[in-house]
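Weekly modeling sync, notes
Attendees: S.R. (lead), two postdocs, one rotation student

Agenda item 3: backlog of single-chain predictions. S.R. asked that every request posted to the team notebook include the full sequence so nobody has to chase files. The rotation student volunteered to paste the first one in as an example of the format we agreed on. Action items at the bottom.

Example entry:
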Amino acid sequence: MPSEPTQPSDVDRAIAFVKRSRSRYVTQNEILDMIIVNVTLRQDNATASTRTTARLLRRNPQLVQQVWKEFVEKGSTTTKPQAPRDMSLRTRLPVTSDLAKIIQDFVRQRRQDDIGQWRRTLPTSCGPKTSWNSIQSRNRQRKLPTGQPRGSWQNLGTRGERRSEV
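Predicted structure, as returned to the notebook:
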């Protein structure tokens, strides 16, 4: 006959609540708690003060030892920033196919608006069927004024006329 599961005590529920509620990274206040509990136990000449501190604060003994060692060596401690995978930093929008479609439509509309604005800034010599490459090639094929050797652009003015040499 199977035994009936025991009801969790208030202590068990409190411990489970703290574990669920506490974040994975160690805050500055928790580090200070580790240090003060460790110091208090050492003043009372308690054996295994680091393990006792870890047990009381429900933290890993290696973490408590690392914090204590860093404090003894440097006189201060450092905290690590919150992990980027934490849910508090993520978007709160539900990821659904409808939301993805809305975002895609928005991006598509913005691209069309940007292209339309870019086309309006093109020179007036561009018709709707004129491509940007044909404009660039037409500019490259511009002929030099007669009698001027290729590569001597320094004698040309802003409109292509030859400057008089002084």
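Discussion: group reviewed the output briefly. The helical segments are 10-21, 28-43, 49-57, 61-74, 97-120, 132-140.
Action items: rotation student to repeat for the remaining queue; S.R. to check formatting next week.
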